[in-house]
Amino acid sequence: MILAWLLHAFYSTIAAFVLAHLTGGLTPWLAGFCLAFGTYFGWRHAKRFLPAHPDWQVKGFAAGPGGALEVALFTFMVYAAWRHFMWMLFTSEHHLATLSLNNYGDLALHINYIRAFANGISFPPQNPIFSSEALRYPYGVDLYNALWEAVGVRLQAHLFFTGVLATIASLVFLRSFGGWWGMGAFFLNGGANAWRIISEQRMIDIQQGVDWKNLFLSVFITQRGMLMALPAGLMLLISVRRHYQGEAVLTKKQMTVLGVVWGFLPLFHLHAFLIVSLLMLAIAIENQGRAGIKTFLLSKMAWLAYLPATYLVLHSTGFFKAAGVAHISWGWTLANQDPIVYFFMNFGPWLLLPIAIFFGIYKSQGFFTPEKRKRLFIEFGCYTFFLVLFFNVMLAPWPWDNIKLLIWPYLGFARLAAVVLEPRLGGLYGHLGRLSVAALLLFSGFASVLWTLQIPSTRATPLFHIGDLADAEGALLGLKTTQNISPEAVFAAATTHLHPLAYFGRMRTHGYGGHLWTHAIDSRDVKDKLDRIMSGDPNSIALARELGITHIYWGKDERSAYGEAPRPWMDILPNVSRVPGIAIYAVK
User: Read out DSSP for 228-277?
Assistant: First the structure.
C-alpha cells in the first residue's frame, strides 16, 4: 500500500538522521537497518489509518463520471512520472543526461548531497557546497536516497523508484483531498499559452515566458523535497480536517504517527512545514472558533511535533539568521508587466475558479446547511488570505521560490471546487459539462507534460561528460599515495554546478554561487579567497588552510575559469593524482 511506503520513507529517514548524529555518519550496515526499521513500522502504522480512510489506497477511486476522470488523470500522470524518472539520469552520446531541462540546475546538487551522505561524511554534516558552514538545507529526501545508495543500489535506480512512488502517493492524497480537481490542479495546471498549439497546429513548448509553470515539471521533479512534503502535508491536512469535522476522529496512536510526520516535516521541506502548520491551525479555528487554537496546540500530535520541529526550524534558519531573506515583492514576479496579461498568461482559466467557488457558496442556501456554508466561507477566506499574503511577502531570496508556499492555498481552492462545484457539474448538460470544464482547465497542463514525453534522445539535456567523470574518478581513487582521499576532504575547485566533484559527492569550499544565493548563504568572502588561491596569490597556502581546504583540484573547469598559467603552489604542494590532465594538490 502506498501509505506504508510513505511512512517507510519518513521513518527510515528519521532513523538515519538520529542514528547518524549519534554514531557520526552513515555506514552500509546502518543504512540497511534504517531501511528495515522504516519498512516494518511504516507497514504496521499504515494499517492504523486505512479502515477510516479507504480512499488512501491506489484503488480508492470515486464512483461515477468523476471517478472516470480520476482514473484517466492517475494513469496519464503515472506514465509521465515513469518516463521522467526513468530518464532522469541516463547515458546519451558520451554524456550523462536528463530528460527535463528543468533538472539542469539542481540535479547535480542533489546528487552531491546523496553521495556525500552515502560516502559517510560526519554528522552533523557540513555543507558539501560550502564546507565552512553546517548543512542547513532541508536534506531529508536526499538522506533517504542516500540510504539506498549506501547499501549498493544504483543512483539511477533509487532516483527512479523514489520519484515514481512519490508521484503515486501524491496522486492518491490529492485525490483524497480534492478529487480530480486536486489531481489536475497540481499535475496538469497551466496558463493561456495553449492557444499557440491550436494556432500553430503543432506541439511546442508552452512553458516559456511564464512563471507559474506546470507544477509537476517545475517543482515536483526538480525540487526534490516536494516528493515527500506534498503527500505528507496533504495527509496531515486531510486527517486534521476529518478529525475536527467528526468524519474520522483521530485515535491516540494515529495522533502519534501524525505528530512524528509533522515534527520531522522541516527535515524534508521548510516552506511546506510552515504553510501546512498554518493551514492546520486554520482548520481548527474554522471548526471550533477560538477554542480550536487551544485544542490544536495542546493536542498529542502537537506535543510530539514541538521538539523535532523546533530543532529543525532553528537549525535550518541558523536560529533565524536566514530570516533576513524575507522581503516584500509586490505581485510576486509581476514586476512592471501588465497585470491583466500577466495573470491571464500564467493562470489561464484557473483564474476563474475562486470566482466560481465564491458564487457557488453564496448561492448554496438550499444545498448546504448554514453551518456548512459558514465553514466554507471561512475556508475560502483562509485560502484567499494566504494566497494574497505570499503573493507579496517573499520568504526566499529569489521571489519565484515562493511558489512552494503558493501551491498550498492554490490546492485549497481545488479542494473547495470539488466540494462546491463538482456536485453541480452533473446537472450542467449531463456529463458533458464535467468533461468540458476538465478540458478547459487541464488542456494547457496536458500539452505541457505531453511535450516533455518525446523520444528522450531528441530532448536529452547533457549534464556530465562520461570521459570527464572517468578521469575524475581515477584521480580521486587511483592515487600515488597508499590511501584514497577521505570523504571528509575539502576541495578548492571551480564553482561550476556540474563539476565532477559534485557527481562523486565531494565537499568543496565553495560550490555553485547560484545555489548558495538561493540557500541564503553569503559566500562573498569565501569566494574572494578562493579566487585568490586559484589565481596564484602568494598567500595561497595560508588562505587554503584558513578555509579548511585539504586539496586543490585542477582540471578542465579550473583551467577554463582561471587560465592555464602555472601557480606557485603547484611547485610546493604534492600532486597525489596520476591521471593526466587532472592534478590534485594536497595541502599539508
Answer: HHHHHHHHHHHHHHHHHTTSSPPPHHHHHHHHHHHHHHHHH-HHHHHHHH
